[in-house]
Amino acid sequence: MNKNIAVIRGDGIGPEIVNQALLVLDKVADIYGHKFEYTDVDMGGCAIDKHGDPLPQSELEKCLASDSVLLGAVGGDKWNNVPGDKRPEKGLLRLRSGMGVYSNNRPAKIWKQLASASPLRDSIVAKGIDFIIVRELIGGIYFGEHKTEGDTATDILAYSEKEIERIGRIGFETARKRGKRLCSVEKSNVLDSSRLWKKVMHRLAEEYPDVELSDMLVDNCAMQIVKNPAQFDVIVTENMFGDILSDEASMITGSIGMIPSSSLGATSCGLYEPIHGSAPDIAGQDIANPIGTILSAAMMLRFSFDMEKEAQAIENAVSAVLDAGYRTADIMPQADDEAAGCTRVGCAEMGRQIIEKLA
C-alpha cells in the first residue's frame, strides 16, 4: 500500500523525534510491503523564519493533499515577541481548522514497565490507568473572538449544538469500542455553553443505550484524575477543558514524552502528534524521548490507514524495549534505576532499539 504523509518537523526537539518516527515507519514499510512517501511541510517558528508566516497557505495545501500528517512540535522562546497573529501556535490552530479535525483523542495509559515513574501512590497506580480523553478541537474559546480594548480583554467561548453533537458522537462511539462508559465533562453550574453541552450529550445518550453516560464538573474531574483515575474509560469535553485535563492525565502516567494523540474529522486524513511541546532547552542534545511521536505514527497506521497489525507491531516493539530496561532521561528519573537494570539512552538510540525489536 502506498501512502503520502505530510511531515511537519517543526521546532526545538521536533526534528529529532520526527526523524526517529520516520525511521520506524520505514522499517514497517520494509517488513509489510508498504511504501510511505514523505512531503516536508514548514510550520511554526521555522516557517516564520523562512516565510514570515507560521503556516503559509501553500504549506497547508500540502497537508490537505496528503493521506495524513505527522507533526513533531512547534514554538519556542525565540518567537515569544512576534505579533500574536504570527506566533508559531497560530500555525497549529490554522492547521487544525484547515484540516477540519474536530476530534482530538489522547490516551492516558500507564505502561506497566513505568509504573514506578508515576507521581501517584502505588495503591492508586495498582488499580490501573487506561482511559482516553476525547477533546473537541476546533471550537470553543480558542477559536472565538479575541479582543483587547483599553485595559479590558475579552475571549469568546461559543459552541453550537452541531459542534457538540459531532464530538459527542465520537465520545460515544469510542466508549462503545472500549468499556462502554462515557464521562461528559463541563461546567454547567456556571456556563451557558456547558449547559447546552450537557443537554446535547443527554439527548445523544438515547441513541447509545449500551453506553453508560455520567456528568462531571471540570474542577471535580481534575481532582478525580489524580485521586482515582481507574474510574474513567472515556472522557469527552470541550477544547480548553480537554487541553488542560489531557496534560494533567499525561503526567500521572509517568512522562508527557510517552503520550501520542490523533486528531480526526470527517475523513481518514488525520493529524498525529505527541502531546508534549518543543522543549527548546534540550533540543539538539539527543536526550528527547521519541516514543510519543513513534506511538503517534502507530495511531496513524491504525486510524487513518487501517493497518492494525502494523500499529500493534510498533506498540509491541515499544513494550519490548521498555521490558529490556531502556529509558530516556524523562522516564528514568530515579538515581537507583541503573541498579534495577535500566539503561539510559538518547533519542536516536531509543529509536534504534525500537526498530531492532520490530525486526
The percent range for strand residues is: 15-25%
Q: Order of strands across the widest beta sheet?
A: 2-1-3-12-11-4-5-10-8-9
Number of domains: 2
Tell me about the largest β-sheet.
10 strands, mixed
Low-confidence stretches: none
Q: What's a concise summary of this model?
A:
The chain is of the alpha/beta class. The protein has helices spanning 14-32, 45-51, 57-64, 88-99, 122-125, 161-176, 192-205, 218-227, 239-252, 291-303, 308-323, 347-358, and strands at 2-10, 35-40, 68-73, 103-109, 130-136, 146-149, 152-155, 181-186, 212-217, 234-237, 260-264, 271-274, 326-327, 343-344.
Structural features, described:
Helix content is 40%, strand content 20%. It has 359 residues and is of the alpha/beta class. It has two domains: 1-109 and 256-359, Isopropylmalate Dehydrogenase, CATH 3.40.718.10; 119-252, Isopropylmalate Dehydrogenase (3-Layer(aba) Sandwich), CATH 3.40.718.10. The radius of gyration is 20 Å and the shape is globular. The mean pLDDT is 94.
Write the topology of this structure:
Blueprint: E1 2-10, H1 14-32, E2 35-40, H2 45-51, H3 57-64, E3 68-73, H4 88-99, E4 103-109, H5 122-125, E5 130-136, E6 146-149, E7 152-155, H6 161-176, E8 181-186, H7 192-205, E9 212-217, H8 218-227, E10 234-237, H9 239-252, E11 260-264, E12 271-274, H10 291-303, H11 308-323, E13 326-327, E14 343-344, H12 347-358
Parallel strand pairs: 1-2, 1-3, 3-12, 5-10, 8-9, 8-10, 13-14
Antiparallel strand pairs: 4-5, 4-11, 6-7, 11-12
